[in-house]
């Protein structure tokens, strides 16, 4: 009995030392019970999120400390932790004041001797500054895409205005011919609607606001992108959509603005690789993700010059570009790779001289 009591006392001392170290470690740490409630937090966790004591947070559900977007992301990660998987992801958490803090969370489950889940331990890293920097780079990239498309936009809008102006002149001369008036009014109306459609697409693409992930329908995005590119890339470029899923059949949980910017930039790169014109093919098909999970593979393929091995090896490097000065910043593929990584996906580039280029962005499927 004395030996057993000594062992119990020694174990308690060891647990007290471990608990003390856990609480004082200079990182935000927290532990969750099987129901997703806070079991423990480190001193640094309290400091980062603006709380004075553990009594204010212990026992509360994790969702109390998450933004709506963070709660949605947590709902996708937590079941994997419960199943015994070590997971990593970026989650929006809330300071006591309500301020959003972007956190990179790495969570590890602790299992009992029979492999049953007991608790999870998570380490947090504040990535808010990095997110702000990436937002700035995305804004630069969006402006670059606008610049690349400016010629096509101006040409198409000029065609619209020419139709309207010519129509008004003929109307003035043929005002007494009802049939001519009806026909010209129809042509002018179609031209005006085409101009409005271009304006709507530009406004949608350029809309400001914070990046937020939501369910995005792949078929709708590709069809809208096809219309935008057909308007803006010029008459020498044909845009085709292949292997498209039915509307509402395949969705992803991403920020739609980011995804559209990535795909639009890939299409602009494809256009630039075909100075004599050609066809750009947009596609989407079901695939397997990095861990074998259900995913969708989005493809942008061209019939252009292709890339040599040395260029292909550096294509994703930030600011690396083979375009002439003033024609590109070299951020497009780097930000596409960053978007893929943050979304739990992959970016693949297949290219060879004279064989064209195909860029494939693989993203996890959203839950139905």
Automatic annotation (TrEMBL):
GO terms for molecular function: phosphorelay sensor kinase activity. Keywords: Phosphoprotein. Pfam families: HATPase_c, PAS_4. The keyword NAD does not apply. PROSITE patterns: HIS_KIN, PAC. The keyword Phosphoprotein applies. Its EC number is 2.7.13.3. Residues 87-139 form the PAC domain. It catalyses: ATP + protein L-histidine = ADP + protein N-phospho-L-histidine. Residues 152-367 form the Histidine kinase domain. It is an enzyme of class 2 (transferase). This is histidine kinase. It comes from Pseudoroseomonas cervicalis ATCC 49957.
């Amino acid at each position: 009995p004395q030996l057993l009591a000594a062992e119990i006392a020694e174990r308690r001392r060891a647990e007290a030392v471990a608990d003390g170290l856990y609480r004082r470690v200079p990182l935000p740490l927290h532990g969750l019970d099987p129901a997703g409630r806070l079991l423990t937090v480190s001193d640094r966790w309290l400091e980062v999120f603006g709380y004075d004591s553990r009594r204010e947070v212990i026992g509360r559900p994790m969702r109390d400390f998450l933004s709506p977007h963070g709660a949605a992301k947590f709902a996708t990660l937590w079941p994997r932790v419960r199943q015994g998987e070590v997971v990593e992801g970026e989650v929006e958490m809330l300071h006591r004041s309500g301020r959003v803090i972007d956190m990179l969370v790495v969570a590890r489950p602790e299992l009992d001797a029979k492999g049953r889940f007991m608790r999870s331990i998570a380490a947090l890293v504040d990535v808010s500054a990095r997110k702000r920097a990436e937002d700035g780079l995305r804004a630069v990239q969006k402006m670059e895409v606008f610049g690349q498309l400016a010629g096509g936009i101006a040409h198409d809008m000029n065609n619209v205005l020419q139709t309207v102006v010519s129509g008004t002149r003929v109307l003035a001369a043929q005002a007494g011919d009802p049939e001519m008036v009806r026909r010209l009014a129809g042509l002018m109306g179609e031209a005006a609607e085409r101009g409005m459609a271009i304006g709507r697409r530009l406004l949608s693409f350029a809309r400001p606001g914070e990046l937020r992930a939501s369910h995005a329908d792949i078929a709708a995005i590709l069809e809208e992108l096809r219309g935008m590119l057909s308007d803006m890339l010029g008459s020498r470029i044909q845009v085709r959509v292949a292997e498209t899923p039915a509307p509402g059949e395949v969705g992803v949980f991403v920020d739609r603005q980011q995804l559209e910017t990535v795909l639009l930039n890939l299409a602009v790169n494809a256009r630039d690789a075909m100075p004599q014109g050609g066809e750009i093919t947009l596609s989407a098909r079901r695939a397997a993700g990095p861990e074998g999970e259900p995913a969708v593979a989005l493809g942008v393929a061209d019939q252009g010059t292709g890339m040599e091995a040395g260029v292909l090896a550096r294509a994703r490097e930030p600011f690396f570009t083979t375009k002439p000065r003033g024609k590109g910043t070299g951020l497009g593929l780097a930000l596409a790779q960053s978007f893929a990584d943050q979304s739990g996906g992959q970016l693949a580039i297949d290219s060879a001289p004279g064989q064209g280029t195909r860029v494939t962005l693989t993203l996890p499927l959203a839950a139905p």
